[in-house]
């Protein structure tokens, strides 16, 4: 039986979840036992579980929130062993790491994050992505065959008439490993300006080109000046001869 504090806390969390459930998660307590919660996780897009309907339980201790709950997934998923406790830092496998500030929403969001990863722990299994996609496709058919699921979630028995789970339209954030780093800034301004590096290179090219032109010009001048100098010397020599002869 739940303590007064546990009952009050879980009733408040139920009200909060009804108003603003986390993405891809729906949870509510059993009507006859506030400590027994049932959840449905909808497989997020871009994962092997996409479109799946994964049902499970969170069983709280009587002195919650001072002790952690036990967590199970009942629907076969290819990620967890059905109806077996899952070892996470937010479960009763690790009471020393439990934080009383954590809530049902925190626990199930953490479970979803753990589910889409590949870390192995007690209660998890190894499966290929192809197998997990098959489990996701069969998940609803499995759930509606379970009497307890039918009693707890009668509104989801007919997929053609069922109201979809709340807050199922959001796309979860990508993993950090998938986040692309920002592009390296170009050394050229977007306005069409030229970077210092390219300016220096162009200057060097211009200087080198100018040097070649100067050398060519000097060579041309030398080639052109030689005949002129010879003509001047000859003219001076002729003038000196004529001057001597006249005198």
UniProtKB/TrEMBL annotation:
<keyword id="KW-0812">Transmembrane</keyword>
<feature type="transmembrane region" description="Helical">
    <location>
        <begin position="227"/>
        <end position="246"/>
    </location>
</feature>
<keyword id="KW-1133">Transmembrane helix</keyword>
<dbReference type="GO" id="GO:0061631">
    <property type="term" value="F:ubiquitin conjugating enzyme activity"/>
</dbReference>
<keyword id="KW-0067">ATP-binding</keyword>
<feature type="region of interest" description="Disordered">
    <location>
        <begin position="162"/>
        <end position="200"/>
    </location>
</feature>
<feature type="domain" description="UBC core">
    <location>
        <begin position="5"/>
        <end position="162"/>
    </location>
</feature>
<dbReference type="InterPro" id="IPR000608">
    <property type="entry name" value="UBC"/>
</dbReference>
<feature type="compositionally biased region" description="Low complexity">
    <location>
        <begin position="186"/>
        <end position="200"/>
    </location>
</feature>
<keyword id="KW-0808">Transferase</keyword>
<dbReference type="GO" id="GO:0005789">
    <property type="term" value="C:endoplasmic reticulum membrane"/>
</dbReference>
<dbReference type="InterPro" id="IPR016135">
    <property type="entry name" value="UBQ-conjugating_enzyme/RWD"/>
</dbReference>
<feature type="compositionally biased region" description="Pro residues">
    <location>
        <begin position="172"/>
        <end position="185"/>
    </location>
</feature>
<dbReference type="InterPro" id="IPR050113">
    <property type="entry name" value="Ub_conjugating_enzyme"/>
</dbReference>
<dbReference type="Pfam" id="PF00179">
    <property type="entry name" value="UQ_con"/>
</dbReference>
<keyword id="KW-0472">Membrane</keyword>
<dbReference type="GO" id="GO:0005524">
    <property type="term" value="F:ATP binding"/>
</dbReference>
<keyword id="KW-0256">Endoplasmic reticulum</keyword>
<keyword id="KW-0833">Ubl conjugation pathway</keyword>
<keyword id="KW-0547">Nucleotide-binding</keyword>
<protein>
    <recommendedName>
        <fullName>Ubiquitin-conjugating enzyme E2 6</fullName>
        <ecNumber>2.3.2.23</ecNumber>
    </recommendedName>
</protein>
């Amino acid at each position: 039986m739940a303590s007064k504090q546990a009952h009050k806390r879980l009733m408040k969390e139920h009200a909060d979840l009804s108003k603003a459930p986390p993405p891809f998660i729906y949870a509510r307590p059993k009507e006859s036992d506030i400590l027994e919660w049932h959840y449905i996780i909808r497989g997020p897009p871009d994962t092997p579980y996409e479109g799946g309907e994964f049902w499970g339980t969170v069983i709280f201790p009587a002195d919650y929130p001072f002790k952690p709950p036990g967590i199970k997934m009942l629907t076969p998923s290819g990620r967890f062993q059905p109806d077996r406790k899952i070892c996470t830092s937010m479960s009763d496998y690790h009471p020393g790491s439990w934080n009383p500030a954590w809530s049902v929403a925190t626990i199930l969001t953490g479970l979803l994050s753990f589910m889409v990863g590949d870390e192995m722990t007690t209660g998890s299994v190894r499966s290929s992505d192809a197998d997990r996609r098959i489990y996701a496709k069969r998940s609803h058919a499995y759930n509606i065959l379970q009497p307890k699921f039918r009693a707890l979630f009668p509104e989801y028995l007919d997929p053609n008439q069922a109201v979809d789970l709340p807050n199922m339209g959001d796309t979860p954030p990508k993993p950090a490993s998938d986040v692309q780093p920002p592009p390296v800034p170009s050394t050229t301004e977007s306005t069409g300006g030229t970077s210092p590096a390219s300016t220096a290179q162009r200057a060097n090219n211009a200087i080198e080109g100018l040097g070649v032109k100067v050398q060519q010009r000097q060579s041309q001048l030398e080639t052109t000046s030689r005949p002129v100098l010879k003509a001047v010397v000859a003219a001076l020599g002729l003038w000196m001869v004529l001057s001597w002869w006249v005198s």
